[in-house]
Amino acid sequence: MSETTPLVGRRERKKAATRKALADAALEMFLERGYDQVSVKDIAEAADVSTTTLFKHFPSKEALVFDMDADREAALVAAVRERAPGTSIPQALRTHMLSARSFRPEYAQQLATFHRLVNSTSALVEYHRRMWMRHERALAEAIAAELGAAADDPACAALAHFALEARALVAPSPDPVAAVNTAFDLLERGWDAVRPGGDRG
């Protein structure tokens, strides 16, 4: 066992390095030349691998843009399953959302550039929509499992949906943290707790 472990470690590191090289090359070329003007062959050549190797790491050209897709989904599920005792699911998701790069000023320009790339290309917009829906299903199932509810429980699905949609408030808001906190206050305590003024309705 001790003889094979270093080999496995090297293999995994090499795979991770190749994957990163491909994703980095793809993003740089997409930003420089435009998504539709770059081929999979161009990306493979820039990373000094074959197209066959590229497709072993990424199932499609679109997936190269969202190379952290699986990690993000795993982190969402872990935020629910591994939350501290006494922490509610909405509280755990709020903390997870607010820890994202979206709320760090040093990443603001980088994220704005990335979002422009995605929103300028219909294939990427559609891929992102499908990816987000998949995250939503995984999160809803994790919430349901924690509560002992059915996997398709509508309340769990609603919480997953609205928790993920809270991120959409970040870009247009002058105070992203306050915007997301307001959304999660609503999820945790209901409309009466956050409605402006005090009017009913």
Write up this protein.
With 201 residues, the chain is mainly α. It has helices at residues 5-33, 40-46, 51-57, 69-81, 89-98, 108-119, 122-147, 154-165, 176-189, 191-194. Helix 4 (69-81) runs parallel beside helix 7 and helix 5 runs antiparallel to helix 9. The N and C termini lie far apart (66 Å). The model has no long low-confidence stretch (mean pLDDT 87).
What is the fold's blueprint, element by element?
Elements: H1 5-33, H2 40-46, H3 51-57, H4 69-81, H5 89-98, H6 108-119, H7 122-147, H8 154-165, H9 176-189, H10 191-194
* CATH class division of the largest domain: Mainly Alpha
Q: Briefly note the structural class of the backbone.
A: mainly alpha
Secondary-structure element order, N to C = HHHHHHHHHH
Number of beta-strand segments:
0
Which key phrases capture this entry?
201 residues; mainly alpha; Arc Repressor Mutant, subunit A; Tetracycline Repressor, domain 2; 2 domains; 10 helices; 0% strand
Short description:
By secondary structure, this protein is mainly alpha-helical.
